[in-house]
Amino acid sequence: MKFKAADIANLLNGVVKGDVNAEVWTLSKIEEGSEGSISFLANPKYEEYVYTTNSSVVIVNKSFEPSQPINTNLIVVEDAYKAFTVLLNHYNSVKNNKTGIEEFARISETATLGEDVYVGSFSYIGTNVKLGNNVKIYPNCTIGENVTIGDNTILRSGTQIYEDCVVGKDCIIHSNVVIGSDGFGFAPNTDGSYDKIPQIGNVIIEDNVEIGSGSTIDRATMGSTIIRKGAKLDNQIQIAHNVVIGENTVIASQAGIAGSAKVGRNCMIGGQAGLAGHIKIGDFVQIQGQSGINSDIKDGAQLYGSPAINATDYRKSYVYFRKFPSIVKRLDELENKINKTKS
Amino acid sequence: MKFKAADIANLLNGVVKGDVNAEVWTLSKIEEGSEGSISFLANPKYEEYVYTTNSSVVIVNKSFEPSQPINTNLIVVEDAYKAFTVLLNHYNSVKNNKTGIEEFARISETATLGEDVYVGSFSYIGTNVKLGNNVKIYPNCTIGENVTIGDNTILRSGTQIYEDCVVGKDCIIHSNVVIGSDGFGFAPNTDGSYDKIPQIGNVIIEDNVEIGSGSTIDRATMGSTIIRKGAKLDNQIQIAHNVVIGENTVIASQAGIAGSAKVGRNCMIGGQAGLAGHIKIGDFVQIQGQSGINSDIKDGAQLYGSPAINATDYRKSYVYFRKFPSIVKRLDELENKINKTKS
Amino acid sequence: MKFKAADIANLLNGVVKGDVNAEVWTLSKIEEGSEGSISFLANPKYEEYVYTTNSSVVIVNKSFEPSQPINTNLIVVEDAYKAFTVLLNHYNSVKNNKTGIEEFARISETATLGEDVYVGSFSYIGTNVKLGNNVKIYPNCTIGENVTIGDNTILRSGTQIYEDCVVGKDCIIHSNVVIGSDGFGFAPNTDGSYDKIPQIGNVIIEDNVEIGSGSTIDRATMGSTIIRKGAKLDNQIQIAHNVVIGENTVIASQAGIAGSAKVGRNCMIGGQAGLAGHIKIGDFVQIQGQSGINSDIKDGAQLYGSPAINATDYRKSYVYFRKFPSIVKRLDELENKINKTKS
Hints:
Three copies of one chain form a homotrimer.
Chain A: E1 3-4, H1 5-11, E2 15-17, E3 23-24, E4 26-27, E5 37-41, H2 47-50, E6 57-61, E7 73-77, H3 80-95, E8 100-101, E9 106-107, E10 112-113, E11 118-119, E12 124-125, E13 130-131, E14 136-137, E15 142-143, E16 148-149, E17 154-155, E18 160-161, E19 166-167, E20 172-173, E21 178-181, E22 186-188, E23 194-196, E24 202-205, E25 210-211, E26 216-218, E27 224-227, E28 232-233, E29 238-239, E30 244-245, E31 250-251, E32 256-257, E33 262-263, E34 268-269, E35 274-275, E36 280-281, E37 286-287, E38 292-293, E39 302-305, E40 308-310, H4 311-322, H5 324-342
Parallel strand pairs in A: 4-5, 5-6, 6-7, 8-11, 9-12, 10-13, 11-14, 12-15, 13-16, 14-17, 15-18, 16-19, 17-20, 18-21, 19-24, 20-25, 21-26, 24-27, 25-28, 26-29, 27-30, 28-31, 29-32, 30-33, 31-34, 32-35, 33-36, 34-37, 35-38, 37-39
Antiparallel strand pairs in A: 1-3, 2-7, 22-23, 39-40
Keywords (chains A, B, C): Acyltransferase, Lipid A biosynthesis, Lipid biosynthesis, Lipid metabolism, Repeat, Transferase
GO molecular function (chains A, B, C): N-acyltransferase activity; UDP-3-O-[(3R)-3-hydroxyacyl]-glucosamine N-acyltransferase activity
Catalytic activity (chains A, B, C): a UDP-3-O-[(3R)-3-hydroxyacyl]-alpha-D-glucosamine + a (3R)-hydroxyacyl-[ACP] = a UDP-2-N,3-O-bis[(3R)-3-hydroxyacyl]-alpha-D-glucosamine + holo-[ACP] + H(+)
């Protein structure tokens, strides 16, 4: 798809300085521009690039005053950064507007589909599944029986959702995510073997949640594992059975939350962090990457270490850990002095 | 499916107190009960809920004596917890009793299938594959050539098994598991590049193993990577080439076992733990989450830390790590005293 | 496939000592040999096995002089280890020579396919995709629009590649890998919720890269996430948006690299290591497993710990960490002595 500078200026409530017919078909950083690309300049730190860029069009702030000649075409707007985000979203919505049922899709006769739904080839829509309006199911997904998926939600290819789970509206589930697999529950026998504890609950994903590729979210033993609205999960996150993740909580990649842990809202959990089972994390808690949390945590706490303690305390202790050999040397010297003194 | 209280009492060798015709169609915790659900009361701690629950039926112990009026229907059994587990298993076996070959399944002419096998749409059964009786292959699985899968084993959707691997009886393999991918073996060249070392072994999963969603198990360079009977692996576990996991060993999510490590039987390995390659872990070893093991470990050891040491020792040392600033302050003060004394 | 000893000797420029008609159909370690298998003896440590092995044929060095009677057939070559690798590669290339389009594959009319391409059932080749010569796409893969894949590259089953990504020649992508999922980028709103920052870049995988099963590589926000030629990634690796991994760098399983980090060439990154975002790692850097790197690192550095420091320093400090209780006891004793002295 090609667009003219004039059309884009119109979309962004901007004014073209230069060729209104200049054509663009991709987006790029200003320092990586090429013919046909559109870029933006918001941060004055990058001003030099606007004089040398190969981008065909650059979006700039109203307040920008060139100090050298400009060889590209400008679109002048109130706020270049915001305008570029508008453009990005427009670009993405045009790109991801697939609709219809592709060949080799398998849709149960008892499933109900909203308007403008897309189901890609090799995707399996089980019995009694309900897909809202504008739901997009990319190829190679399996949606188990009785699953409900809300309006505008996108499932990228290879995602697997077990029976009875619920996904809200406006969610994005990336490739190869698993939702609703059995929780890890076993009862030990006297001979050292284990009996499986049946896992008959489900997973509920509320509205406006994004889940990164390769993440796994187990169903509850009974009741529901819940990801509350607005939560954002990065790639390869593990959420165990009966966990609750609070509203707007953000979890970086490869973190793991063990069974029945409850995480509050607006928390930030760093990559590769691990939370033990059956603990309660307050709201607005910040957990440094690779930390291990094994007890209840108050609202607003900042944590680091394994097991985690207050982040500032951890950093202080770690400074001394790094100096441990010299600290022990000081102790050695003191002992020598004392022993000399005594003798 | 709806069941009457009388039928369930019959299944559980229990007696109904209340309406023998009360109908139930789902299971729930006693505190989350709703019309049509059946719950249980085993732990006296939860007794209060039996007087207020909305569950239509509650299973109780013979020994339970109500201290208030009961508004629901009871089924009285010898052991309510065990009875509920029987009910759960019954519920699950009724639910997962799919059989037959769905449309758009691709089964090689040279594959052999036992009785009551289920193969879902978009699943690929390669040449010479052998599926035992009652095997269930959910949609979007790929089973490579010469693979053997034992009776009653379930593969959930999206699971990929490479050629020549063997899966035993009564196993559950959850979604998006990979079994038999190449081990990570490369020989360095003088120019800094690497040549691939071909990985021609396989993976053997013995009977009664459960593997969590998103886990990956690499084939051996030569010979076999082996998961022994009764082992339970949680989600996103990584098992490298030529590893052996002993009988009934339990591994929590996101743990990784490097190449050629041998793990004994009845071990418990915590989440996000990492085991180095070519080490030998004894039987009944317990490894705390996030620990890193880089040497051979004796039977029954309990480990913590990275690198891991005896778990009790780690916890003791960590108490002092937390107090490190105050310990250094004490050292400072001692030095000051000594220096004053000397001057 | 059965081969005669004479044919194999011919392939390896070797000489048969024994029955030139001895038949083999599999490869095994010398200590695990069985009838029909071929093994090798290179390391003198294993010499004893050549006298007792059940392998039908054993490849040995020219320099090998038996000290006992040999009951198997030998193939004598210049370098037994190298010869066996040649044999392994030959075995693998014969095994993985699938070609053609299987039934239930879906290939866009606008896609272009080179010679000898294989596309398995249930694989989806999107619009404008370009597959080079000899590309092998196993079943249940999804290749998004505009993706380019170079000659001889193999995608194992279940791999998902998002639109606009580029994969080079001679790559191996194992099962359930995700390439090109959205980077994890969100802009906070004043009410605590987040807006998605569109991710419109792509992923570029250069030539001769191997990526282990279950790994996830996010597309750039703008521009490209890049894996340079010869890099080797193990299973369950996480590569965030705008990361660059240098030539011939090797990353062990479950490591994670956060957004915009740049890793140099010929580095070795241990399992479960984590690299923070926006840092620059030099060339030839070695990072111990489970380490956490949060700052720029010079060429050739060796690192350990979380946060990581020089590996030797970490090990020294950790020795004292283990002795922490006895060190504090020494401090206690010194204090007692001083206080006695003073009183």
